[in-house]
Amino acid sequence: MGAPAIQVENLTKNYGPVLAVDRVSFTVQPGELVGFLGPNGAGKSTCMRILTTWLPASSGYARLAGFDVMYESLEVRRRIGYLPESIPLYPEMRVREYLQYRARVKGVERSQRNIRIDYCMERCHIREVRNRLLGTLSKGYRQRVGLADALLADPPILILDEPTSGLDPVQIAETLSTIKQLGGKHTVLLSTHILSEVEKVCERVIIIDKGRIKLDESLRRISERKPTYIVEVRGPREAASAVLRERNDLIVLSERGIESDLTAFELQSRDGKDPRETLARQIIERGWNLRRLDVQRVSLEALFAEVVLRENNHSGSPAPAEASSQTHAS
Ligand SMILES: Nc1ncnc2c1ncn2[C@@H]1O[C@H](COP(=O)(O)OP(=O)(O)OP(=O)(O)O)[C@@H](O)[C@H]1O
User: Which Pfam families does the UniProt record give (predicted)?
Assistant: First the structure.
């Protein structure tokens, strides 16, 4: 295998007394589509600015396509497309004119310029605004012009800082589908606040909080993590607890009284086998009632809650285990 597309080693950034990025290390292989997730102020934009050579690190290093961001910044810039969080556009320029200017700056061959511009406008759904002044565009269209700009020179690596910010739901769906199609051919590092976007588009997630990496795992492995079984039994609590704890194939993660004779248990299977049917039989055979028996798969939301929210929330309330359709991390 050649050089990783992105290699980050002990990257640290201080803004005066503020430690924004704290010894961050990760590697992204060519063609991977990685979600970079974290609450506000986690350090995502700072990392992305360092990776795109716009900001020097205080210590540590990063290499993109094998080139050092600090000492070989021109080589790095040639190989990346960057969509910053706020896009600096020239308000008096028209969309197509702006992309022509950007294609020139990026050194796209003259004979290829119009082909690339048309392709990127099509991909980013901005053909209909190609003659509009940038200053008159909505935030959603500005964002998509920024994405088209990032794609212009067909760079192998795309660094996208909140590409769906300001878009309406239809535009979000279109942009996510565009980004998904870019994976494989391009390496994509995508920062977002929205967990469901990562689930829809990415193969892997890196969660950063307070400048430190809290999780770096593929979504497939997350989905393969052992599920939790929720059982609510109406019957004598001590006896019900003893029956569940006697089973060698189960781990009782928690036990909580809901009413005087109603108890909720959180269980995990030791051997990976689904224990629901045997559990139901045991409970019914003893003449108790089974009010609830379900399985909760590990979701990104639950993991996010575990690694970020629980630590920040000193109330100690347990993390929710089920994903909602769209959850904002901040
Ligand atoms: N120029 C700066 N000067 C001082 N502190 C800064 C500067 N830029 C960012 N910070 C601080 O560094 C930390 C990380 O900020 P950063 O913008 O990288 O986080 P983020 O994860 O991108 O957040 P958001 O999602 O809100 O954009 C925050 O505490 C922020 O206040």
Answer: ABC_tran
Give residue 46 CA to ligand 1 midpoint distance, Å: 6
Q: Which of 36, 37, 44 is the best mutation target for the ligand 1 pocket, counting ligand atoms within 8 Å of the beta carbon and taking the most?
A: 44
* Residue 83 CA to ligand 1 centre (angstroms): 17
Helix (H) / strand (E) containing 147: helix 139-151
Could you give the residue range(s) of every CATH 3.40.50.300 domain in the chain? Answer: 6-223
What residue's CA is closest to ligand 1, atom 24? 40
Mutate to test the pocket of ligand 1, among 15, 22, 206 (most ligand atoms within 8 A of CB): 15
ipTM for the whole complex: 0.96
Going from the C-alpha of 284 to that of each of 241, 278, 279, 287, 303, the distances in angstroms are 14, 10, 9, 5, 33
Pocket test for ligand 1, best of 11, 12, 14, 18 (most atoms within 8 A of CB): 18
Instruction: DSSP letter for 133, please.
Output: B
Per-residue pLDDT tens digits for 127-139: 999 999 999 998 8
The CATH code that applies to domain 226-296 is: 3.30.70.1710
Question: Which fold, 6-223?
Answer: Rossmann fold (3.40.50)
Q: H or E element: which one contains 95?
A: helix 95-105
* pTM of the predicted structure, to 2 decimals: 0.80
Hunting for tokens 């700009």 — which residue is that? 149
